[in-house]
Structure prediction request, 191 residues.
Amino acid sequence: MKKIMLYPLAALLIGGPALAQGSKTVTVDNNRISGTKTITRDGAGTVVVDGDVTRKSDGATASHDYNRTRTETGWTASGQQTDFKGRSRGFDYQRDRTENGFEASGSGYNRRGDQYDYSAYGTRGENSRERGRTVSRNGDVVYDRLDNASRVDGKIVRNTQVTRDPSFRPKKRVKPLRVKNPKPRRFRRDR
Prediction:
């Protein structure tokens, strides 16, 4: 009986890392477009996404490529998209852990040809933390943010300084709240 129980356990232990690896392909084919998207994971933190779609009416193609690799001190990512009109946008990003925080840098370009550069850092002290982020477009700084928080005499003091060009709107990572149950509840009446 003990041997019968050990065989599945051994198979899980040996096959566990192999299960984390894999590739998945999704195919789309309808009256407007046809194409595929392939997602490949190696189990060590590398993800590669390749997708190509062809519009049936005129044969125009659109593509999407994304690569993310885990490194010893953080991770790197890059990606590129091309639409049906041939316009492309892309980015490169690197984030590294430091002794007491992180450092990040990256660059990107949009479909209009604007070049963006990004740098950020975060540090944490015994009673404080600080985060900074700077974005420049075509060499001009369009967004600069510095957040500080510290504990002084048992109170938390926060300070935020933001400088932003009116034409630049940073993406917000905050997702809107969703109602868990949009239907009104019906109460049972006691009989």
Notes: The first strand starts at residue 22 and ends at 29. Residues 1-19, 174-182 have pLDDT under 50 and may be disordered. DSSP finds one helix and eleven strands in the chain.
